[in-house]
Amino acid sequence: QVQLQESGPGLVKPSQTLSLTCTVSGCSITTNYYYWSWIRQPPGKGLEWIGYIAYSGSTYYSPSLKSRTSISRDTSKNQFTLQLSSVTPEDTAVYYCAHNEGDYGSYDYWGQGTQVTVSS
Predict the structure, then answer these.
(1) Of 60, 74, 84, 100, whose CB has the highest number of CB atoms within 10 Å?
(2) Do residues 8 and 114 make contact, with C-beta atoms less than 8 angstroms apart?
(3) How many helices (H) and strands (E) does the chain have?
(4) Per-residue pLDDT averaged across 33-42, rounded?
């Protein structure tokens, strides 16, 4: 059973960098054709895809967030990490990590989500 767990600070000050880690259990993040995404949901809004890191280590980001986003991984810990720089209150959201398989697979495993609030 694949499980994902987000961790990181729940409060970030404006202009700082948000950093979240997703710890994966039940499979290796380097398993062929597995993709590992970050997705967020601002209050009162729908889900917004942020980006992914693939089994190969390649990354792809939402064009609207690309300039501020970096996703990396630590294969020895089976973790992947989101960094979002220069945050504003508009980045306040519940952040999820999720898995899908293949280029067009649906998200089949999700973390429980973690609330991040951007406020001074």
Answers:
(1) 84
(2) yes
(3) 0, 11
(4) 97
Strands (DSSP E) found in 55-92: 59-61, 69-74, 79-84
The b-or-e profile of 78-88 (16+ CB within 10 A means b, else e) is bbbbbebeebe
pLDDT tens for 71-112 read 999 999 999 999 999 999 999 999 999 999 987 789 999 999
Q: Who's near 26: CB < 8 A, 6+ residues apart?
A: 1, 2, 3
Residues in the chain: 120
Which token pair is 42?
Answer: 């601002």
Measure the N-to-C terminal CA separation of the chain; round to a whole number of Å.
Answer: 39
* Alpha-carbon gap, residue 103 to 105, rounded angstroms: 6
Q: Is 83 left (phi over 0), alpha (psi -120 to 50) or beta?
A: beta
